[in-house]
Design a protein that fits this description.
444 residues, 25% helix, 18% strand, elongated
């Protein structure tokens, strides 16, 4: 995974993306056997011969994509995105363009066919990830993002490599993915780096970056739109896509491109690694993950949360625990997320708003003592309740001129609605108050 700049456009044809809001990313491949991050080949400067031990031992006997689908659905996710091929070049399907594929390992099967079937059976949208980088292909030139970047003979090696042949290979594999598995809803490419150059000690460029021309991105996107007219495609081909992809950070606000707000999706890990990383214990708590989800939706974005299954094909217990924690919260609060988006107004401190139709949702990251004051909402709310149990929350409008007394709070600014909360915080990760507006236009 990596980020790359590109120009984006709004989605004209896939409204589900900005309604479903939460998806599961799955990074799984040969690197899962190493269990040391999906860039292990790059990080440890492995050559193809050393890395081949994972190919020779890839046998995920516990792979059951129906369990993946169930875990995603129980967590409240609406779509799943699987790495069909990561930077190491290994294909999870029976590609006609390479021998470096799952069917030639001890596994011996196309792993995408059961994945797609399981998602459809579960009613989830089908997503594919595909890397445009390929450390295994003989025509992918060595550059600063290549596992063989430290090869002293890289210049001689590159003289034998043909970018046009690699483009043909890349397009051929994408055509397979979008032809052989029925309707595909989502395509995540990774990644372009046209302005990224690696310098020699004398300052002269050693490697140049790669971008749209290297991938044949314009023709590739045209083919994608022809094969799958309803698909959405991300922004990492270095040509206009359908949404932007901030990685491992939460945007401060709406994402802007060309002076317009654009759809976006933050892709986040559970522990900082995309692939299975056995000894990495830096897991985010379910509460942190829920905060990220709410924060993103409050700014008009989605969350694509990653899991890295083990080399045997299972989602490990720590990841399952994280997903289960999200799922319990989503079971009670999903209507503040699905179909919701930015409310267009500032929330109180330590809180976030989302809006769905004429219902405004106040997510309280910290539990106030008795009162919470909502500027601009006086006269606009007809009813309020805690979302987790539908228990009523009384509200009032304090006289702006009221002085603080022994038993009375000070008045608030004109137009402020005051909610009176129970002393006890609800036993949920993030309490949510559902505010029923007289009309949706009350916030405009």
């Amino acid at each position: 995974m990596s980020t790359a700049p590109a120009t984006q456009v709004a989605i004209p044809h896939a409204p589900w993306f900005t309604e479903d809001r939460l998806g599961m990313f799955v990074h799984w491949g040969l690197y899962s056997l190493a269990a040391r991050h999906e860039w292990v080949m790059y990080r440890e400067n492995m050559d193809a011969a050393e890395y081949s031990k994972y190919f020779e031992h890839f046998d995920p006997d516990l792979y059951d994509p129906s369990e993946w689908a169930a875990a995603a659905k129980n967590a409240g996710m609406k779509y799943v995105v699987l790495t069909t091929k990561h930077h190491d070049g290994f294909a999870l399907w029976d590609s006609a363009f390479t021998d470096y594929k799952a069917t030639n390992t001890p596994c011996g099967q196309d792993l995408l066919t059961p994945y797609v079937a399981a998602l459809r059976e579960a009613g989830l949208k089908v997503g594919f990830y595909h890397s445009v980088i390929d450390w295994h292909h003989p025509d992918f030139t060595i550059d600063g993002n290549h596992a063989a970047r430290n090869n002293p003979d890289w210049e001689e090696v590159n003289k034998t490599r043909d970018g046009a042949r690699y483009r043909e290979y890349l397009h051929g594999q994408v055509r397979e993915l979008l032809t052989n598995y029925g309707q595909i809803d989502y395509l995540f490419f990774d990644f372009s780096y046209p302005d990224e150059a690696t310098a020699n000690p004398d300052g002269e460029p050693k490697f140049r970056g790669k971008g749209a021309e290297d991938w044949g991105s314009v023709a590739l996107m045209e083919m994608i739109r022809e094969l799958q007219p309803g698909i959405i495609v991300n922004d990492r081909l270095n040509v206009p896509g359908d949404f932007v992809t901030p990685e491992q950070y939460q945007p401060a606000g709406a994402m802007i491109s060309g002076d317009k707000e654009v759809p976006w999706e933050a892709c986040q890990t559970l522990n900082g690694s995309w692939g299975y990383d056995r000894d990495n214990l830096d897991y985010k708590s379910p509460e942190q993950l829920i905060h990220m989800l709410i924060d993103g939706v409050s700014k008009g974005g989605n969350l694509l949360l990653n899991v890295g299954p083990t080399g045997r094909g299972e989602i490990d217990p720590r990841a399952r625990e994280s997903l289960a924690g999200m799922g319990e919260w989503m079971r009670l609060h999903s209507r503040s997320i699905y179909g919701a988006g930015a409310a267009g107004m500032a929330a109180p401190q330590d809180a976030r708003y989302t809006l769905r139709g004429n219902r405004l949702y106040l997510h309280l990251f910290a539990w106030p003592f008795q009162f919470v004051h909502l500027p601009g909402l006086a006269g606009k709310v007809r009813y309020a309740q805690l979302l987790n149990d539908a228990s009523e929350i009384p509200f009032l409008v304090l006289d702006p001129g009221q002085a603080a007394g022994h038993m009375t709070p000070a008045g608030q600014a004109p137009g402020t609605l005051t909610l009176k909360l129970p002393v006890q915080r609800p036993r949920v990760a993030v309490p949510v108050i559902e505010l029923f507006l007289h009309t949706e236009s009350d916030l405009s």
